[in-house]
Amino acid sequence: ALAGGHSATVEGPSVFWKLSTWGNPRAFTAGIEHLSKRLDEKTGGKFQLKIFYGGQLSKSRENLDGLKANAFEMAQFCNFYHPDKNPALMVMTMPFLPLTDFDAGVRVRRGLYAHPILSAEMDQWNAMYFESTHLPQYEFLGRGDVPKSIDDFKGLRVRAGGGIGVAMETIGATRQSMPAPEVYTAMQRGTVDAASFPYTYSHGAYKIDEVAEWFTSNLTPGTSDCPIVINKSAFNALPEQYKELIMSLRDEVKENYREAYKKADAKYLPQFKERLTEVVFSDEELAKFREIGGQPVWDKWVADNKDKFDAQAVLDLAVKLAKGE
Amino acid sequence: MVGSPNGIEPNITRGVIPKIIRQIEDLFNILAAMTIFFVMLLTTTGVFSRLIGAPLPASLEISELAIAVFAFLGAAYAQRQAAHIRLELIISNLPGRFRWLLEMFGSFLSLCLMLVLVVYSWEFFLNAWIIGDSTYDYEIPTWPAKLLVPVAFTLWAIRLFIEIIGFGRLALEPNAIPYNVPLTLTPEQEARLEILHSGAGGDGSFAAGKD
Amino acid sequence: MDISALIAGQPNAIFGVGYSDTSLVGAYVMILLLVLVFMGVRVVFAAGITGLVGLVELIGWTGAASIVGSVPYSKSVSFVLGLLPMFILIGYLAFHAGMTRLLFQAAKTWLGWVPGGLAVATVFAAAGFAAVSGASVATAAVFARVAIPEMLDAGYKKSLAAGVVAAGGTLATLIPPSAILVIYAIIVEESVGALLIAGFLPGVFSAVVYGLIIIVWAKFNPEAGPAIKGFTWSDRIKSLPGLIPIMSVAVIIITAIYGGWATPTEAGALGAMIVLVTAFIHGMRWRALKDALMETSKLVVMIFSLIWGVLIFGRFLGFSAVPEAFADWILSLDADPYLILLCILLGYVVLGMFMDAIGLLLLTLPVVYPAVMALNGGPDVTAAESAFGLNGTQASIWFGIIVVKMAEVCLITPPIGLNCFVVNGVRPDIPLTDIFKGITLFFIADVLTIIGLIMFPGIVTWLPDLMFS
Ligand code: NA
Ligand code: NA
To answer: H or E element: which one contains A51?
Structure first.
């Protein structure tokens, strides 16, 4: 009730929270900026959430360690940065999960976060899920011959991480890993032929379209997950009304991301279509890709992880949620 | 000003334990030096094999992990040789006892930091060990490289401890011959040391290069 | 200090301030840092201790100690830093490969005929040696042996002969390979390749300014630096084959970085390999290789320690947001950006009187760099909207080259101009006062160079721009 209408102010003590993220303000940080603004408004400036950009507080790959050490109260991280730290959340990188739209993604991520295996995984880092940044599906941008069929990926040097990378390998591409900011130069110089990124905002943010010649628009090879997490001890130390308040803002944050990515699409998609060749695969081609790059990769993931946790259950849940069952 | 007791070697070691520690430091620095050589060979081979179209798998990740060897193992050796830079202008012009007390205090503070680093770099290693942290592509475990940090820092802490005792002794007897302490040289002495050093090794002169 | 809170690991336990006033915490910690540095505590420890103290104040013991414990590994073990030992090793081996003497002889046959010809030849030979040496002191020491005797034999004034060697040594840090430019790139998270390439033209520009000022001066004081005549074209052509090894190293390093066919680290390793082979052909023994490796390793561990020590301090700065506050303050002055830049550079001159170049850069950049970037208009500013007419990346590279050149000037100015002491060490018969006197000319040249780089930033940004377009 306290966190209800827009006008009501939540009373409480002064709180100063630090959120650790990397890079500059962008669509990826739109939700946390909104959160910070709303907390400030709702508490009359009492609950301050300061966002530290550019890895000021911690390297992007060490944000979970920072939460464990109580160095800050909130953070963003990406699952593919450190599969060993979040093996169960890696399910979100499985290629060709049937995530057809933004809302399917919301169902899967929220459902997974609530599952005991995944929340226990975060417990180890003294962390709890707040909300996802709801990364869109990936697509490829590339340079050189336009791939007409899945076979054309054979022999290409492809920058792709997690399950998408494994899928690309199974169809005969060479997987390359490099930090996102380096892809631009690598593609320009021809040391990488294609790169997968969240579509369209990441391609645009890293200006890959300036050096690419084609883009895929319906391959939907999969995605990954970069959640916003809260330091559990810091959360537990909050007064009840602040706990309610912050959790009540989850939907706003989610909607904020929906808008941010929509805006990015409106900006970048016309730009891509004007500059680049759009590659649209036929249903048969997609089915072929799914057959070699989908289920076998899922099975391998389950086999690799079955000793650590009930990987099959996690995968089944993700698929079930995606289908909206 | 404190001159170098024997003109070239900036410090003297006395006592059984300091001599053992000195040997370990020398060994660690040799390992670090060999690793630099190894990385040079590996990287060169890596370039050629890539150019002929058969890239060496994991060579990049191995040379990255190898950095831990030369970034840390030689640290105590460098401390003994007074190679870690500092501002010498004031302290080297202070009168005897006061200088040694200040040196001792500075080394004590350094030891405090080093002990924190030993404990918490060990925890950092332990964390990597427990979760099975590995490199991104070829999944090489990172714990051996991370373990080098607390190992090298423990030796460095011991070196600082020896140094504190050495300075303490000098604080008691300011005119005694300094030993077991890294002597700081004036720029003239440093330059001379460099030239003597290169003179002994042949014809080059490269020791300082602190720029 | 609140001891019980400190033991309980709570924030605000040291100064009792914490996040209620981060600028005040920043001020306390900066003062502590200055005290420790002036007390003669080694910079790695001074920076590490103050960083730890500041972090404990802001976030309490557990967080602070874990961060401090993880920084050395996470900040050191990064592929690009593998470059440092390669660059340093090249410098240690290059003299054994006989490269200095051949360069000087070649430069003499080509440039000896101008007024002050041998001094001009020394400048350009040092610039050539800079293409294989990453360290300025080493270059000065080598040329003190090779060039000074010939200049004195030819009747050159002692102060000129010594001054040109001390100053010529500083060219090594601008012309790639350069360890200090790599360190700058790491600290400000800029592309290492771009920085290295950016140093090339300013290095050449610096050498040209040195050469011109010598010629002008020798024109009016012919007795101080007579021209050397009598070399034939045949002598000149014959001097070239000896330069093949040094040229190939330079070409490999520059084309690899510029063209991208190898990473800077790979180029460094290839260069070191070529120099090593040349040195063996030239008669170097295993013993000398071992010495070179041991010395390299000692210098490398010193630099790595400095980097993580200062980055612990940098972590504190990150949590404190002091650099943001400093940048805001600079912007609030509302003064001419060039005037502010000038003040910052003068600050470097003063600090440079007391400090080593790497320490100087590492300690100041975390605060100064964001301020300069903000002054220009921020990291994403376009050239048209910026204060210095440079976009974010260009400004970042441009400031790096200027500040490294500044730090190099400090190597030849009293009271601790290390290059001058090195020359004096090789040639004790030339008094320090004479050397510092001989430096005056080159100090003027350096001031002109820096003004040139500020007024014509294209000298810095042209090559990196070309590389990325
Ligand atoms: Na150089
Ligand atoms: Na100076």
So the answer is: strand A47-52
C177 Cα–ligand 1 center, Å:
4
Is the pTM higher than 0.80? The answer reads: yes
- Say yes or no to pLDDT of A165 above 70: yes
Task: Determine which of A75-79, A299-303, C362-366 has the lowest per-residue pLDDT on average.
Answer: C362-366
* B47/C269 Cβ within 8 A: yes
Q: What angle do CA C356, C359, C362 make, to 5 degrees?
A: 145
Number of domains in chain B: 1
Q: What is the DSSP string of C6-64?
A: HHTT-TT-SSS-GGG-HHHHHHHHHHHHHHHHHTT--HHHHHHHHHHHHHHHHH-HHHH
Provide CB contacts within 8 A for B45, sequence distance 6+: B56, B59
Residues C121 and C160: their CA atoms lie apart, in Å, by 13
Please state the φ and ψ torsions of residue A228, each to the nearest 5 degrees: -100, 125
Query: For residue B178, what are the domain limits?
Result: 16-204
CB atoms within 10 A of CB A233: 13
For residue A191, the chain C residues in CB contact (below 8 A) are 260
Q: State the average pLDDT over residues C7-36.
A: 92
- Chain A CB within 8 Å of residue C263 CB: no
Give the gap in angstroms from C-alpha B14 to the nearest C-alpha of chain C: 22
Would you state the structure tokens that stand for residue B183, as one six-digit string?
A: 């002597």
Handedness of CA C348, C351, C354, C356 (dihedral sign): negative
Q: Give the helix/strand (H/E) hosting B193.
A: helix B187-201
Note whether A185 contacts C: Cβ–Cβ < 8 A: yes
CA torsion C428-C295-C177-C73 (nearest 10°) is -140
Q: Please tell me the distance from the alpha carbon of residue C353 to that of residue C28, in angstroms, as a whole number.
A: 24
Nearest to A177 among B131, B132, B137 (CB): B137
- For residue B1, being part of any structural domain is answered with no
Answer whether residue A300 shows pLDDT above 80.
yes
Q: Are strands A227-231 and A127-132 parallel, antiparallel or unpaired?
A: antiparallel
A86, A132, A128: which is closest to A109 by C-alpha? A132
Residues, chain B: 211
Domain assignment present for B210: no
CB C79 within 8 A of CB B60: yes
Distances (CA, A) of A298 to A54, A90, A167, A177, A305: 34, 11, 10, 21, 11
Distance from residue C250's CA to the centre of ligand 1 (Å): 9
Q: What are the chain A neighbours of C66 within 8 Å (beta carbons)?
A: 65-66, 68-69, 71
- Weakest mean pLDDT among A66-75, C184-193, C440-449: C184-193
**Per-residue pLDDT for C155 more than 50?**
yes
Specify if B2 maps to a domain.
no
Distance A70 CA to ligand 2 centre (A): 43
Distance CA A260, CA C205 (A): 48
How large is the ipTM? 0.84
C172 φ, ψ (degrees, to nearest 5): -60, -25
Q: Which residue among B131, B136, B137 sits closest to A85, beta carbon to beta carbon?
A: B131
Are the CB atoms for C322 and C23 separated by under 8 Å?
yes
Least confident of A145-154, B76-85, C258-267: C258-267
Q: Tell me what pLDDT residue B6 has.
A: 35
In this structure, is residue B191 part of a structural domain? yes
Q: C319–A24: do the CB atoms touch at under 8 Å?
A: no
How far is it, in rounded angstroms, from Cα C124 to Cα C456? 22
Confidence of residue B200 (pLDDT cuts 50, 70, 90): very low
Of the partner residues C76, C284, C299, the one whose CB lies closest to the CB of residue B67? C76
Note whether A70 contacts C62, CB cutoff 8 Å.
yes
Helix axes C357-376, C43-59, angle to 10 degrees: 50
